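Below: protein 1.
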Amino acid sequence: MKIFGLLGKNIDYSFSREYFKEKFETNKLDCTYNNFDLETIESFNQLKENCKAFSGFNVTIPYKEVILPYLDSIDVEAKEIGAVNTIKIVNNQLVGYNTDHYGFKKSLVPHLKPHHKTALILGTGGASKAVAFALKELGIKFEYVSRTDSTAIKHTYNSLTSAEMKAHKLIINCTPLGTFPEIEKCPDILYDDIDEQHLLFDLIYNPAETTFLKKGKSKGAKIINGLEMLQIQAEKSWQIWNS
């Protein structure tokens, strides 16, 4: 039996476990997929010592970036992104990949219009780095929005202006704000400046319509949640594990 799993923290809600469980049952595959809820990234050392028992892992919040030093090698794209969400185990060696950028790009492209030339990325974690990588590939300029100010961040939520909201017709939420069960939360942006030309993409999939998306929808914006992205990146992980 091949054993796969998800590394993360507070991941009972996980999409991946149910997705792969159904996949294995439907295709009658001798595989299992388990959640490994780690209190700290240091807890991964125990799993790493027994890596012979595993075929691969997915990685989610909050470990996509801090997992890097625990890996034996990192794929070129994942290294450029600076975050890993897929680990393949080959000859007891842990190799890191990133399939988030692939899933995001594939799910975004069918909805893009000519006026979606610039984007705001809400959040600066591992997922936002994959989103930024995909936008670069698409030739879409972007700027980060964060809670804290730094030389690398152009905007904070407090400094974001009405003009900037109107100028960036693509807005991607890469924060966990609005995830079940705290579904009333959302990024603190100027929703009144959103119009029908805006495209709002939320990486969250539970609930299907976050408060972020609902507020955008009420202003006429096109909205997309993260479910298709997750499905695509999961299949890409499966391809990597079996290549």
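Below: protein 2.
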Amino acid sequence: MQGTLFAREHDPSDVVYTPDWCAQDMLDWFKPCGKVLDPCKGAGAFFDKMPDGAEWCEIREGRDFFEWREPMNWIVSNPPYSIYLDWMRHSFEVAENIVYLVPLYKALHSSTLLAETFQWGGIVEIVHIGTGRDVGFDFGFAAGAVHYQRGYRGGMRYRHGF
């Protein structure tokens, strides 16, 4: 059984707040509907703009995403990168669609993650937003929104900007 986030070491570099404009652009582009979850609410950049009835987790407020079990239509957020593989595994367990703001190499750098992504579904689209610094991260790598979907077997779209 997977441990909770409380049982894991916390990496302070995982706390990176998403700019409001970026969260709004992502939500406008992907249009999540139905049961929607922000699994790492932080200051609320995504959650505050989500459809009414959206749910949230935030470890700093005692709501651990690794304890979330309710099936969701959409997860949209900026996840912790130090535990990305475990985070994705749990996301695959509870969501039909996942959109994460990430350094783009995170979505593609691990053969294990790619195999598990394919087993679960696939990547529908990658939207390259800019460098990490463009979205408030402390790195210059390419950053963007990656849309994963359960059971997806089509081609992957790439877009530069929203």
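Helices lie at 20-30, 84-94, 104-108, 111-120.
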